[in-house]
Amino acid sequence: MTTARTVLITGGNRGIGYSLAEEFITQGHRVAVTARSGEGPEGSLTVIADVTDSASIDRAFTEVEAALGPIEVLVANAGVTKDTLLLRMTEDDFTSVIDTNLSGSFRVIKRASKGMLKARFGRIILISSVVGLYGSPGQVNYAASKAGLVGIARSITRELGSRGITANVVAPGFIETDMTAALPEATQAEYLKSIPAGRFATPTEVARVVAWLASDDAGYISGAVIPVDGGLGMGH
């Protein structure tokens, strides 16, 4: 039986984040999600926050701490894409994706780590992507932001590992969400051909791996990159 924890998931109002929140609730945890709009699943506390704004993150954390207690598990999931080929990619296309996906993760981790250090316990889980290490045409910005999460997790492991805090990366492959459903069918078929499992994952399959990493059973795993991609990125 896993100890019930206070869990905060960024970007928990849709897609993988929503499924993450559902899974943690099912397992009996106290769950809060950040969202810029919309709400997390029933049973979660939704706080409005923008991960590009430190002040809004601080307010959201303070609200969650008052309602549910210190945050013990942080899942940095909020992410955006602005896909386009390198020569068409503007500087803003690049920096805005980095600011949300990479710097946004830094901001929430920094805020969460204060309470974790005090408690001498913490689980930090960063939602990356197979693209972070595998690469993808048209996604220079997104791949850079997702690869950067690996460096964050491994540095935090070395810095805070002796304080009972773990930091791991989960790298989903092709998942059935609104974001992927928007891709052209030809692109989806192309991806399917390169996935040894021969299918896309459900968001729940990602959520269960994340919940396990947050559990007592995974206390000695840190700095790892765990793929949930049906074999798409093997060795990357």
From TrEMBL:
A GO term, aspect molecular function: oxidoreductase activity
Keywords, in A-Z order: Oxidoreductase
Record domain Ketoreductase: where: 5-178
Stored Gene3D superfamilies: NAD(P)-binding Rossmann-like Domain (3.40.50.720)
Pfam families per record: adh_short_C2 (PF13561)
Listed InterPro entries: KR_dom, NAD(P)-bd_dom_sf, SDR, SDR_fam
PANTHER family documented for this protein: 3-OXOACYL-(ACYL-CARRIER-PROTEIN) REDUCTASE, 3-OXOACYL-[ACYL-CARRIER-PROTEIN] REDUCTASE FABG
Family: Belongs to the short-chain dehydrogenases/reductases (SDR) family.
Protein name: 3-oxoacyl-[acyl-carrier-protein] reductase
Organismal lineage: Bacteria, Bacillati, Actinomycetota, Actinomycetes, Micrococcales
